[in-house]
Automatic annotation (TrEMBL):
It comes from Streptomyces noursei. This is Uncharacterized protein. The chain crosses the membrane at residues 6-27, 34-53, 65-83, 115-138, 150-169. Keywords: Membrane, Transmembrane, Transmembrane helix. It comes from the Bacteria. The lineage of its organism: Bacteria, Bacillati, Actinomycetota, Actinomycetes, Kitasatosporales. The keyword Transmembrane applies. Residues 174-193 are annotated as: Disordered.
Amino acid sequence: MVVTLIIACEVGFWVLLAAGLALRYLARMPKTGAAVLLLEPLLELALLIVTAVDLKNGATADWKHGLAALYIGYTVAYGHYTIKWVDVRVAHRFAGGPAPIRRYGRDHLKHEAKLWLRTVLMAAVAAALLQGAIWYVGDGDISSLRGWQAAGLRIVSIHGVIMLTYLIWPKKAPKDRAAPEEAPARPREESLH
């Protein structure tokens, strides 16, 4: 049941995102679209409740509960960012908004470092939820939950190494483009319209 809900939450995330953006830009109903986008956290709340109820009803703590915690952590850390990232692209494509910012050099490294911090947040939220589940289960088999905590640390480490590669080998602007420092000022990608 937990796995089905994780899949439903993921599908629901993209359905709500598409519906919210369609209302904002295609139907020209920005407030209604924003309201639909604000429903996103309810999906994670439902997943958290079902996972807790599943454990309360005596389910053995296993990979499904660990995956649910990691999914909730990902949504907390990256959910809003993902919505903004897609929003900028949809606004550019369908509503004449500015083109998404392309980053190079130090600006790209700084952006990747911020993304890595989001990954740290994701792992921390997941680890906290998993620790709560471990305390809740008590004397039962918690090896799977501990394994998911370790998986979160591995994800943070791998992402950190990838981020550091941009320090060693910075992403270079194409020859026909000016460097970001020389380019005209445009609104940042992070702002919602």
